[in-house]
Structures are given as structure tokens and as C-alpha cells.
Amino acid sequence: MSKQSWKTLLATPALLSATAVASAIAGTSTAVKAAEVTDTTLPATTIDHSTNTAKATSSLSTNQTPIADVSAALPQPAPPTATLDQIAAYSVEGNASSGMVGQVTSVSQLSDVKPTDWAFQSLQSLVERYGCIVGYPDKTYRGNRALTRYEFAAGLNACMDRVNELIAAGTADLVKKEDLLTVQKLQEEFAAELAALRGRVDAVETRTATLEKQQFSTTTKLSGEVIFSIADTFGKSATVNGAGGAIANTTRNDNTNTIFSDRVRLSLDTSFTGKDRLRTRLQARNTTPFNGAFTGTNQTRLGFDGDEKNAVQIDKLFYRFPVGDKLTVQIDALNDELQDTVVSNLSPFESSGAGAVSRFGRFNNFYRINNPNNVGSAGITFAYKLSNALRLEGGYLAGGSSNNPAAKGGLFNGSNAAVAQVVFQPNQALTLGLAYAHSYYTGTEPNGGGINITGSTGTSFAANPFNGAATTADSIAGSVQLKLSPKLLVGGWAAASFAHRRSNSDNATILSAVGYLAFPDLGKKGNLGGLLFGMAPNVISNSGLTNSRTDSSTPLHLEAFYRYRLTDNIAITPGVFVLFNPDGNSRNDTQYVGVIRTTFTF
Fold it and tell me: What is the pLDDT of residues 368-380, one digit of tens each?
């Protein structure tokens, strides 16, 4: 080949390109009519995006293909920038989902459904007519890519469901007969893929249901509460009991000094199913009780007192779980305080760290009937939902020596109490409770402790009406709470215990009552104001031979406190309570107790 011919051949592509550009600029249109044209298949190329070069990987081939007669004018060529934008759009179309296409694992899946196939075009027509496939998240259909037979079957299944919905809705006239025939034909052609698809969906639903049932894993949550308090009593100590007898080791003086003390509780709450709770609570405290040794009466005690010299102890251990939809059960291993079980105490002041500052003011003394401690006191309680408005609650509570097999110890031979309660809540504003308990006190416990019917909330005679002799008691209690507004609660409680001396026919009657006002969110959300006035537990009659353990005066209790929430985790509660006729005798001076309690929660 001559050098001139070689140069001409090299220049030919450039001349052709120049001619094409000139034609595009001129905007000429050419009518094309041909019975057949030459269809040229370009060599397949591999694009290197880093260099924008193309390498031919297959040879050029030509085929004679007849096409329809075309007489329409060709459209105006787009500007070069628009053309480049279209090319870029076409090159990335489908890239977002290309990574989502599943791998082919069966030879039967190698036969894809192409956009030019009858089945593909038929499905596309159904999609456009009935809207049975929305498309990609960006609202594009992207109908220019081939589908695997399983992908196609998924689309066909969606259209079949849509057609069935229209027929079931009584709008069958919207479905064309030819479309039904198309669906039927497609269903027959892709029967195997549809069956496999439905089987896979069923399997996924089964696995999903299993995961939903088993998705909860055992978790343990740590929560804590720390109390700092400053407290003192004011007024002369009680020196005589309810019958006028001298109280041992007391003098008519103010025998207390201002104290600063603490209490720390760490609770580990473990759940195995998401609906149950295993609580292990650790406690350390050093708040010396203002009891008879200092003031001549237990009525001056604080709601959070106790002194173990800040030694860490397991203070609470229970497991609470549901049985069906209506029954909840709690099993306590130790310190089975009735107010801290599933039995409702119906008091807005119950919390020792956030409620009333006095021991008596927290809740009805009826719920201290079993006199628990953190050595023994095992028990079981339940709450059964009879209806939306009515609950039945109760349980069996062993005494402080439930873990001791010695005489007058154990679950059933030591001190114990059986409790039943009905709670009626006809609406969100009103709650009523009526309870009964039968309790037994041995008088001497293997683990220590004696008789304490009222849980150290009243006079000394009310706690121990027969001077340490074995005692049984039948007690009843009633509670009412009325929510007048979201920020005002009015309520009260009363209790009566009919005590019996086991060794003879002596009987004693013990009464108590409280009325209160509670002000939730007073000042701001999370605050609580409280005002209560009541009669502390006292013996109003005793049939003992000497009648020496009956209180001569009614002990009265007046209390006010205000819990102010500084932050979500810090609250400060100043409070004061006043005792009239301490320990059931008007000869004792009025006593005052003041406290500032700061509570940290986390």
C-alpha cells in the first residue's frame, strides 16, 4: 500500500466526524425509506474509566435484518452537552441496584427475561395499567434491564395480587378480559418460579415469626439511688407510755443532735423474656433511727432510716413474672415488704427516697403487717386482673426467720401473714381498695426480733399489745384516692387490727387513719407537694387482766413536705412533721422532726 493511500485511510474517520458535526449544526433532516438495511454489530468493548479508552475484544460482524418502513423525519440532534449527559445517565442506570441482584444458583435461572420478550412487555403493560409495581425508591421504573425468572415472577405475583384485589373489591369491570388472559398465560409459563417464590416467602415469614418470639436476649440493667440527709428532732423526749408508765432510759430533754447521714441502693434488674424481672438490690446506710432510745417513741422515725454502719448487704431479692395475660406473680427470697410487691398500697407518698419524709406518712401501716427484715422474710404475692376495673391481690409472707429451720422458724412455723385485697378502679380518677390480713407473731424469733404489728409507726403498745406474748391479729384496711385534677389528689386510708393473745382470751383493738392532699408537678414537672394529717396506730381497747397497755390519748401526726426536682437526676426534699400526744399520752410534749433529703438517681 502506498504512503498516500495509508494517509487517506487514516484521515477517513476524521472526515466522517467533521461531516457528522456539520450535519448536526445545520439541523438537516433526511427521510429514510428502505426495505432493508445493514445492521452492524459493533465490537464488544471493555471501558477503562480511568483512561476513557476502549479496547476491541471481538470481531466485527454484519447481518441483513429487514425492518419496517420509516418515513418520519429524524428529530433535531441534542446539543453536545445534553448528549453527554444522556450517555452518562444511561451508563449509570441500574447501578444502584446492580449490587442487589442475587447470584444465580440454578441452571434454570440462567434464562433471563429480556425487555424484548413478549412476557416482559406484557408484564410492563400490566404494571402501567394497574400500578402493581411502584418501582425503585427514586420512583424510576428502569425497564431497560433483563430480569431473572425469579425477579420476573415476583413482579408477576404483585400484578396477580393487584388484579385479585380489584375483582374482590367489586371493580372487576376495570380489569380487561385480554389482561386476564395475559395473566393466565404468564402464570402458566412461570408456574414453577411462582411456586418457588411463595415457598420462599412462607419460609421467611416463619423465620421472622420465630425471631420475633425469640429476639429478646437476657439483659441486666443497673440503677441506683443515693440519699444525703440532714435531720434533727425538736422538743422534749416522751417519758411516759400510753398508760402513764415511765418509759425506761428516757429523760424529759431534747436528747438528739443534728445528723448528716446517707443511704445507697444499687438495683440489678435482670429480664429473661422482656416481661419478667429478677431484682437484686444492694444497700448500705448509716441513718440512725430517731426511735424510742432517743425520743421515747418510734413515731419520730424517718421514712428511709436504718443503720448498718454502711456495710453493704443484699437488701432485696425477688423474681416477678406474668402467667398469661391476667396474672402476675412475685416470689421474694428475703425482705418481703408487702408495699414493694405486686400488691397495691394506693399511696402517692410510698417511695422512701421521693415520697413522705416520715415512716408513718409513706403508706398505710397495714402493709407492714408481716414485720419483714433483710435476713429472712420470704414470700409470694400475686395480682389477678378480674376485669379492666377490678383486681384481686394477695399472698403469703413468712417472718424474719423464714430461712432458719429452728423452732419457731421456717416458712410456716415462724411468724407469718396471709393477705388478700380487692382494688376497684372504675375510671382514671377514682381508686378504691379493701384488704384483709391474718398474721401470727411467735414472740421470739430465731433470727432475733419480736412482735411488731404496726411496723414501728405508732405507739409502743400498738406494736406489741401483750408485752411479748405470742399474738395473732386479724386486720382490715381501706384506701381511697381521688384525682380531682392532674395536679391535685385527695385521698386517705384507715386500718384496724384485732389482736389476740395466744395463751388466753385477751384481745386488743388497734386503729389508725390518714387523710392527705398530694400536689403532683407543683411548680414544675417532677415536683411533688404533700400534706397529710392522721392518727398514728394506737390501742383503743385491751381486755388484758390489768388493762395496762391501752393508750390514754390519741397520737396525732401532721406532716408537710415539698420535693423539688433540680435536674432529672437530683431532687431535694425539705419536710417537717409534728407529733401531738407522742406515744399515746398527752403528758408528753409535742415533738417536731425536720429533715432535708437530697436524692440522686441514676
Answer: 998 888 788 999 9
Residues in the chain: 602
Of 213, 238, 269, the last residue of a domain is 213
Give how far Cα 365 sits from Cα of 244, 438, 490, Å.
25, 14, 19
Q: Is 53 inside a domain boundary?
A: no
Q: How many CA atoms lie within 13 A of 592 on its CB side?
A: 7
Residue 201 pLDDT > 70: yes
Distance CA 577, CA 592 (A): 6
Residue ranges making up the domain that contains 266: 218-601
The pTM is what?
0.67
Number of domains comprising the chain: 2
Q: Pick the closest to residue 431 from 360, 345, 329 (CA basis).
A: 345
CA 579-585-586 angle, to 5 degrees, is 75
Looking up cell 436504718, which residue turns up? Answer: 306
What's the CA angle centered on 497, arms 493 and 501, to 5 degrees?
A: 170
Question: Do 125 and 209 share a domain, yes or no?
Answer: yes
Collect all residues with Cβ–Cβ distance below 8 Å to 183 and sequence separation of at least 6. Answer: 126, 156, 159, 160, 163
Beta bridge partners of 518: 489, 530
* pLDDT on residue 412: 93
**Backbone phi and psi for residue 577, each to the nearest 5 degrees, phi listed first:** -140, 150
Cell of 482: 381521688
